[in-house]
Amino acid sequence: MGVQAALEAHLKSGLTTVARCWGIERTDGCKFGFTDHDLDLSFEGHVFKAQTGLTSTALEQSTGLSVDNTEAMGALSDASVSDADIEAGRFDQAQVFCWLVNWSDVSERTLMFRGTIGELRRAGGAFHAELRGLTEALNRPLGRVFQKPCTAVLGDSCCGFDLTSTGYSDLRPVDDVSENRIFRWRNLSGFAPGWFERGRLTVQSGDAKGLKQTIKQDRIEGEIRIIELWEPIRASITSDDQVLLEAGCDKRHTTCRFKFNNILNFQGFPDIPGEDWMMSYPRQAGENSGGSLR
């Protein structure tokens, strides 16, 4: 008898021993488990802790491309979901699973929901997490965009560039940081000014390990190299925490060619005509190149 068939037979028996189990897997690999049963349960690589205060509203499921959704509510606790981790964004886009399980035989179970955490809010020592189903991804626009700048993300499968190549990343301890957003080094040399602009800073150690932000500016003032982020890292950063700096790309054809030597994978159309091309007219001299009309 299959797993679901066994659970169905159990439910039809009239005397049931079922519970709900919620599994959360963050993007950094950390796993959390919750159950409304009064004893801990374990399966699928999760340990579901009893009496952890997680409950959920009814699951709304629909056909077509409508988004399945529900909401989970639980207590904030340093032992499970902490206020600091939510503030740092560690639960953003975390994977969520919900099983209906026979707690007397956990092999009899069925997966009722799978999705990601959407909006996450907290108040009064509790958190409320909006859970979005797998059909959420189908509502995103897809297709090729025809534009002059490159549409790829530096280092992704379309770009194909290896950011671990020598000269395109730098791992070093923090010298000085203010507002968790502005980093300063005295000995950060060997890179042209603006080399890391539009790149990424990832914290490799300390309380903020695993958190990352996009670099807004990379400038030199005297002997000081200043790396400024668009938004602050949402966790404590101290001197000597290790950070990884990755080179940035402004999506231009010349940058792809001369900075990264990756022109074969350029995903833009640098010679596409501009908007004023529609107003061009025949003439005997000059070129209709798609440039500005003079």
Automatic annotation (TrEMBL):
InterPro entries: Phage_phiJL001_Gp84, Phage_phiJL001_Gp84_C. It comes from the Bacteria. It holds the Pfam family Phage_BR0599. Residues 194-276 form the Bacteriophage phiJL001 Gp84 C-terminal domain. Signal peptide: none annotated. This is DUF2163 domain-containing protein.
